[in-house]
Specification:
heterodimer; A: 686 residues; alpha+beta; Four Helix Bundle (Hemerythrin (Met), subunit A); Alpha-Beta Plaits; 6-stranded mixed beta sheet; 5-stranded mixed beta sheet; 23 helices; B: 137 residues; mainly beta; 3% helix; 48% strand
């Protein structure tokens, strides 16, 4: 049995997405305003968020969430109605954060039937109590209950003398137990709209604050144009929680409705205060998002493939062999085809860029982590972002969320010292955690740096010894290897296990998860100065700058980031050692460098063998350098490197020196070499 | 009603022998494809092709099964095989027909070590080797 209303499965994804999004927005506002001033715009926005969450939770049949959101909404109703109302800010924010967390957890667990629905009544009671205290200071705010309920004979107002015979009015009554009937009515209305022409409804604004009461007490009236009333009735009765649906008889004769009061009676005049607040809130969202919509990532994937297919199909058409005989007779065709090519190129670029998101999204979630930890641990840590606009593929941004959370928590909990200790150590600069993102060759590098106590290699070593997780004699461990011990399974540096960091189980899991995605986790530290954790993940879907080169009749590519120089070798610079090893003298650096013939390495035939005939690709990494010999270079290209499929990867292509392939704009495939691995291979051989 | 044949397989020829692959494992059949050679792979992988933006390997069935290596002609086809984990193009001499069969029609091999699970027999009494898609990888 699912936790939410039957028949709502289809809405589940949307609900989770929307609610999570709203709650994140709420957190943003809270973090922004906690230290400063709570503007009327923000109050309106929070009210709107809670109102929406309440509504959609009720629609899903999640009464606990709906009630909690309702309680929070009420709080902001009071504040919104009377901006001068007195309240203590700190406890209010505590309630809001707690509420936001509860709602977030519940949303996250909604699909997991093994976790029961949480009971929020204790929190709700506290919120109500807080509201009471607030109200005590501002009795005027209770005005909400006293809204006019004049619905004498609303249905009559829906009829108009000019109506044609096929216009009917239906009345839908909801079960008394139905929570938020106006939301149900809205869902129902949308269904009906698809089948018939809806002229008017009563209440006409289901979004208004009192629509719920109106629907619950008087029922929901729909005036529509149909030629099949039975069909409509069936449809209405099939609606969720609908108790009954009936056709309202047309009154024989009625006084012509006075034009002005009619709408007024249908929907009570909007309250003065909320209107501008709502408008302001709406405007603000618009400003921020610039008219954004959210799209499922699968759709983007599909779109990207389609764009690629279009390019391939296009080249099939434009270069069709059928066209050859008419090559010089089709000037208009070729003109149009150039235009088409321009457009498809642009389409492809656009689709690529759509998938890229600034890493900011993953970073800004850490604000909340720091805020909470500062509250409980009292370490007063400042979070600094660097390169937060670095764009990464959506999948990478999602992947980074969890590791970042772990690393930031660890940095604050284990890394940063308590203020007294910092003072004693003579550290004057404020405690800081720096998140930095940038590109390095074809990887995204994210570092988490703290200026805390750093790690003591000796302490780590003796701890690891105590836990019995050393894999070689103690004295053989280098400093770097000591630091890496904290990523070993079952290691903890903080004797006091806190609610944030646990027992050090985190680090090895973080490392493993990153490795699964082809990433790496590195650590460095300086005792007394702080630690740096570095995440390196492949850009995978992101574009890298590569240089094309030929070997025989086939083109290959090498990432430009791995290349340091391309040059044509001079006869006099080539030397062969007595062992038969070919070397080239680099006159600028005044040293020799090993030559690796790629054709030999890849066991290819039909490639150039005379070294002075071809070209040298000088590659360098931290520990080695070699000149890769190829036939010629072609052109610089921006390509997306895809790793090999699981099946192909089994044949050791990575070890042979290939990092993957890339599909070019015309649909052809180009293998991409990994110079680093080739250099490593050369090292071992040498 | 006569016995219902619940399975269908695509029958193709490779080096004068008949083979079949269960149709649910087949994505599509292509007449031609631009193969890109990738060095350092076993001989039976001719290279890779682009399938809707995915780079998938081409398995040369003749070489995979150790038959004589002759040139492919214009009738040779690529059968795109998809299993739960992998997708690959199987290069065969020519695709002939489809055959309906039921589980009982399969004369099974005793062990599961071969790429084929057993034989089925067509109307003309010819043996068709039924290939197990998963075991091609």
């Amino acid at each position: 049995m699912a936790k939410f209303e039957a028949g709502m499965e289809a809405m589940l994804d949307m609900f989770v997405f929307e609610t999570t999004d709203l709650l994140e927005k709420l957190d943003d506002i809270l973090l922004r305003t906690e230290a400063g001033e709570l503007e009327p715009d923000d109050i309106g926005e929070i009210f709107r968020i809670m109102h929406t969450v309440k509504g959609s939770a009720a629609m899903m049949g999640l009464q606990n969430m709906s009630k909690l959101a309702h309680a929070l909404e009420d709080l902001f109703f009071i504040i919104r109605e009377d901006p001068s109302v007195k309240y203590e800010k700190a406890p209010l924010y505590e309630l809001l954060y707690e509420g936001s967390d509860c709602l977030k957890n519940e949303t996250e667990n909604i699909s997991d039937e093994s976790i029961p629905l949480s009971d929020f009544s204790a929190l709700i009671d506290r919120i109500h109590a807080f509201a009471e205290v607030m109200k005590g200071g501002a009795p005027a705010a209770a005005a909400r209950e006293e809204q006019p309920q004049e619905e004498a004979n609303g249905a009559a107002l829906l009829f108009d003398d000019k109506d044609e015979a096929d216009v009917f009015v239906f009345k839908v009554v909801y079960e008394s137990t139905c929570l938020m009937p106006e939301i149900r009515a809205m869902v129902l209305l949308n269904q009906i709209k698809a089948a018939a022409q809806v002229i008017k409804t009563l209440p006409d604004d289901l979004d208004s604050d009192d629509a719920s009461d109106a629907v619950a007490s008087d029922g929901f009236y729909i005036k529509l144009k149909t030629d099949n009333t039975d069909n409509m009735l069936d449809m209405l009765e099939a609606g969720i929680n609908v108790q009954s649906a009936q056709v309202v008889a047309r009154p024989e004769k009625k006084p012509a409705p006075k034009p002005a009061p009619a709408p007024a009676a249908v929907s009570p005049p909007p309250e003065k205060a909320p209107a501008p607040a709502k408008a302001a809130a709406a405007k603000k969202t618009d400003d921020k998002s610039g008219g954004m919509i959210s799209v499922k990532v699968e759709k983007l994937d599909r779109l990207m493939r389609l764009a690629q297919e279009i390019v391939i199909a296009q080249s099939g058409v434009l270069h069709s062999s059928d066209l050859k005989p008419f090559k010089n007779e089709l000037p208009n065709f070729y003109k149009s085809s150039r235009e088409l090519k321009k457009l498809t190129d642009e389409l492809q670029d656009m689709v690529m860029s759509v998938r890229m998101v600034p890493i900011n999204g993953a970073f800004s979630k850490m604000n909340r982590v720091i805020r909470d930890m500062n509250k409980t641990l009292g370490k007063n840590v400042t979070l600094v972002f660097e390169g937060e606009n670095t764009e990464v593929d959506k999948s990478i941004a999602d992947l980074l969320g969890d590791p970042l959370m772990h690393l930031v928590r660890n940095a604050v909990d284990h890394g940063i010292e308590m203020p007294e200790k910092r003072a004693a150590a003579g550290k004057t600069e404020p405690a800081k955690v720096i998140l930095n993102a940038h590109y390095e060759s074809n990887e995204v590098v994210v570092t988490v740096t703290d200026n805390g106590g750093g790690m003591d290699a000796q302490v780590l070593l003796s701890k690891a010894k105590k836990y019995g997780i050393l894999t070689k004699p103690e004295q053989e461990y280098t400093e770097k290897e000591c630091f890496e011990l904290i990523m070993a399974p079952g290691f903890s540096t903080n004797d006091d296990v806190t609610e944030y960091s646990g027992r050090g189980v985190g680090m090895d899991v973080v490392k493993k998860n990153l490795e699964k995605a082809g990433g790496k986790l590195l650590v460095d530290s300086k005792l007394g100065e702080g630690s740096v954790f570095t995440i390196r993940v492949p850009m995978s879907l992101t574009v890298s700058d590569c240089m094309g080169f030929m070997l025989g009749s086939q083109e290959y590519a090498v990432p430009v980031s791995e290349l340091s120089e391309i040059f044509r070798p001079l006869e006099e610079n080539i030397t062969v050692t007595p062992e038969g090893e070919e070397m080239i003298y680099l006159s600028e650096e005044k040293k020799f460098c090993r030559i690796i013939r790629l054709a030999e390495k890849f066991k290819l035939n039909g490639c150039k063998t005379d070294l002075t005939d071809g070209i040298m690709l000088l590659c360098k990494n931290a520990s080695a350098q070699a000149a890769l010999f190829a036939d010629s270079v072609t052109e610089d290209m921006q390509i997306v490197i895809k790793p090999f499929s699981a099946y192909l990867a089994r044949f050791g292509l990575k070890e042979s020196g290939f990092s993957g392939t890339s599909v070019l704009g015309d649909g052809s495939i180009i293998p991409v070499i990994d110079a680093n691995t080739i250099l490593k291979g050369a090292e071992v051989n040498g | 009603m006569a016995d219902v044949k619940e399975n269908t397989a695509v029958v193709f020829r490779c080096a004068d022998k008949l083979f079949a692959v269960e149709i649910s494992n087949i994505l599509e059949i292509r007449a031609k494809a631009d193969i890109t050679f990738i060095p350092c792979l076993p001989k039976f992988i001719s290279g890779v092709i682009n399938l809707m933006g995915d780079v998938i390997p081409v398995i040369d069935l003749r070489k995979k099964l150790g038959f004589e290596d002759t040139e492919y002609d214009e009738r040779s086809c690529f059968i795109i095989i998809k299993t739960a984990d992998d997708t690959a193009a199987l290069r065969v001499d020519r695709v002939l027909t489809s055959a309906a069969y039921s589980e009982e029609d399969i004369i099974r091999l005793p062990e599961e070590s071969s790429v084929m699970s057993g034989y089925i027999t067509d109307e003309e009494g010819r043996h068709i080797s039924l290939l197990e898609a998963q075991r091609l990888f």
